Amino acid sequence: MSVNYGSHRTVVGAHYGMRDWLSQRVTAVTIALFTLILLAQIIFSKGPISYELWSGIFAAQWMKTLTFVVIVSMLYHVWVGMRNVFMDYVKPYAVRFVMHVFAILWLIGCSGWAIQVLWRL
Amino acid sequence: MSDTATSTAKSRPEFRNIEFSNLRTLRWPLASLVSGMHRVSGAIMFFLMPFIIWMFDTSISSEISFAKFKAAFDVGMLGLPGFIWKLVVLGLIWAYLHHFIAGLRHLWMDTHHEQVSKEFGKQTGAVVMVLVLSLTVILGAKLFGLY
Predict the structure, then answer these.
(1) How many CB pairs under 8 A join A and B?
(2) Which of A65, A96, B56, B67 has an alpha carbon 20 to 30 Å from A10's alpha carbon atom?
């Protein structure tokens, strides 16, 4: 038997809690900063929000790149969050498994669509 | 002493992981309400994600799609009147605000151990609720063209 105590202890359950916990917080801060940056560009603009103004915000290369980073961050953030929710409330393993698979496919599909919209601007 | 221990041991309630059916009967003090709503708001945005991306798509792709985007909220879409779609957006506004502000509170509680107390939970929970609901009202009024 290998050593299974102290720093070598095999933690039961999902056993990657720290990585997900930290990623969720880092991605949260990324999304929050993006929100403030986007809001600032709208608030400090003049006149009504026209198509030119709105699409102009995302036309800038730095904003496009930042938005891409945020879409990928959101993909991971939402995965961790929904997985937590499913793990906490859905007890039958088969149902939980199906929901996890659904969440992954749903999120990959949504990210693909969002990136497609962003990329053709 | 040992008598009390053995007599209470039999009637001691067992707490297991909570399930959906428990959510109704639980007590919801303010701090737990803010936390619970954080999950609810996250789940709402998860399930409405295609609608959010649809809004991003139509609002930004072209002048024509931008007009289509506006029309959905003015005259309606898919047989539903515009105000129904505005109500959906209002729900999303609330969800984003709550998730954002309650999330900041959670981040703060992660970094400051002494802030994880009953009083702090209640006070900051109240601040979150007031901020979120008043901002939702202000933005909702703008959404429905009240000013």
Answers:
(1) 59
(2) A96
Query: Please, what is the Cα angle at A81 between A76 and A87, to 5 degrees?
Result: 125
How many independent structural domains does chain B possess? 1
Q: Chain B 76-115, CB below 8 Å of chain A: which residues? A: 100, 103-104, 107, 110
Classify residue B34: in a domain, yes or no.
yes
The domain defined by A16-119 folds into 3 helical TM bundles of succinate and fumarate reductases (1.20.1300)
Domain contains B88: yes
Q: Which amino acid belongs to residue B95?
A: A
Provide ipTM, 2 decimals. Answer: 0.84
Name the 3-class secondary structure at A14.
coil
In chain A, domain spans:
16-119
Q: Which residues of A97-110 are buried (b: 16+ CB within 10 A; e: fewer)?
A: eebbeebeebbeeb
Residue B80's SS3 state is strand
Q: Does A14 touch chain B (CB under 8 A)?
A: no
Distance from the Cα of A32 to chain B's closest Cα (Å) equals: 7
- Reported as a single tens digit per residue, the pLDDT across A37-82 is 999 999 888 878 889 999 999 999 999 999 999 999 999 999 999 9
**Residue from B17, B38, B51, B53 to probe the interface with A (highest A Cβ count within 10 Å):** B53
3-state class (DSSP) for residue A79: helix
Q: Which residue of B has its CA nearest to A52?
A: B63
The reported pTM is: 0.83
What's the CATH code of the domain at B82?
1.20.1300.10
